[in-house]
Amino acid sequence: MADQKIVKPQPLSGFPEWLPAEKLVETRLLDIIRRNFELFGFAPIETPAVERKDILLAKGVEAKEIYALSRLAAEQGAGPAETDMALHFDLTVPLARYVAQHFGRLVFPFRRYQIQKVWRGERPQAGRYREFYQCDIDIVGTDHLSILADAEIPSVINAIFTEIGIGRFLIRINNRKVLQGLLQAEGIEGDRVVSTLRILDALEKIGREKVAANLADEAGLTPTAADRLLGRIDGTTDLDGLAEEVDLPLVSEGVAELQAVRAGLMALDVPEENWTVDLSIARGLDYYTGTVYETRLVDHPSIGSICSGGRYDNLAHTFTKQSLPGVGISIGLTRLLARLLEAGILTAERSTPAQVLMTVMDRSLLGQCLSLASRLRAAGIATEVFTEKKKLGQQLKYADQRGFALALVLGEDEAAAGKVQVKALASGEQSLCDQDAIVETVRALLD
Fold it and tell me: Which structural domain range is residue 101 located in?
């Protein structure tokens, strides 16, 4: 063993590795997200982490973003090391392939949620990762999908973020048809629309002055036209007035859809302080065709978008001739969790999922300690037994460090009287209770 070579443990940049306390927070968020997805009737699916390269590249994604798979070396008789497989970089392309492949066996509208890790070949920065959890929901229809589906999506997000307790948040909603109509009014059509929308998408990041300059330099707008366009999308709340002012079919259609989404949100009892119509939300991706969403924390705008998505006309046009309109949204959970922990909005204080530590002060009473722990677990109360030969003070220190709520102490006197000591670690208060009433006592203290 003296000559054994030690390999220095080094983390891989962009691949997060949480400590137990942080992982427990992540697990709690995943549970909340999953429960709310199902509460709204979304069914789970899981697609392989690996897809064919041609499937992933079919949607126009840059090859540099995709991690390809290969064996470390070619195997004799098994072909080259390189394969035609790659890790999925998001969950939208796998969904498109999945729906096209299983179309005949799915019931539409198809409501699915998918919570999986994805891998993206980008330089890690500002909380971005190469490996991260995405939590997606989509409603996919055939030929037609009700605009009320566009109101359901933010109502799910409202329920999730309210339960997580991340402070004030605002789901900002727009419609790409309105933006495209406003661009059309300024003479921007065809291939220039997507590039101009990407310029507008940077409005919050770089400010109005720079966006106006880019509209002039890259989109060819005059300063007057750029100012007029930005004036219409920045702070406009009178949708009817806008539709009258810019009398174009695209604007009228987009305004009507926005009003329908707004009415749906109010009918779904989503608090008005948690959402707003914001015509500056563009979403740079070119496959959005109607409603678009972007969510931010009101008190922490520097964290950026924490949840985004929108409506698309045809999810799987690359894989099938069947028209499949849909609407969806995605929570990038890993990035969100990192930012929330960094900002102190969420805290990772407990490194154990158990709420109770059963100490062992007297080794001759180990059997009774194990029995008490089993009784608590049978009642659904997470309990750990400290089995190492350590003094009681060391056991209580361990309990405090790991974040247990309660510690149980069973000594010779307590055992003879059929009692057990219950110590609340946060306050230091302790009391005696009957062993027969241990479940009721512990549950009351935890509640």
Answer: 20-342
**Domains identified in the chain, total number:** 2
Residue matched to tokens 């109101």: 151
**Residue 273 and residue 375 share a domain:** no
Residue 389 belongs to a domain: yes
| Shared domain check, 364 and 301 | no
The answer to whether the predicted template modeling score (pTM) of the entire model surpasses 0.85 is yes
Per-residue pLDDT of the chain (447 residues; tens, 9 = 90+): 567 889 888 888 889 999 999 999 999 999 999 999 999 999 999 999 999 998 888 766 677 788 999 888 777 666 677 889 999 999 999 999 999 999 999 999 999 999 999 998 877 665 678 999 999 999 999 999 999 999 999 999 999 999 999 999 999 999 999 999 999 999 988 888 888 888 988 888 888 889 999 998 888 899 999 999 998 988 667 899 999 999 999 999 999 999 999 999 999 999 999 999 999 998 866 678 999 999 999 988 888 889 999 999 988 888 999 999 999 999 999 999 999 999 999 999 999 999 999 999 999 999 999 999 999 999 999 999 999 999 999 999 999 999 999 999 999 999 999 999 999 999 999 999 999 999 999 999 999
Q: Inter-axis angle of helices 223-233 and 176-185, to 10 degrees?
A: 150
Q: Cβ(392)–Cβ(419) under 8 Å?
A: no
The DSSP H or E segment spanning 270 is: none
- Which amino acid appears at position 28 of this protein? R
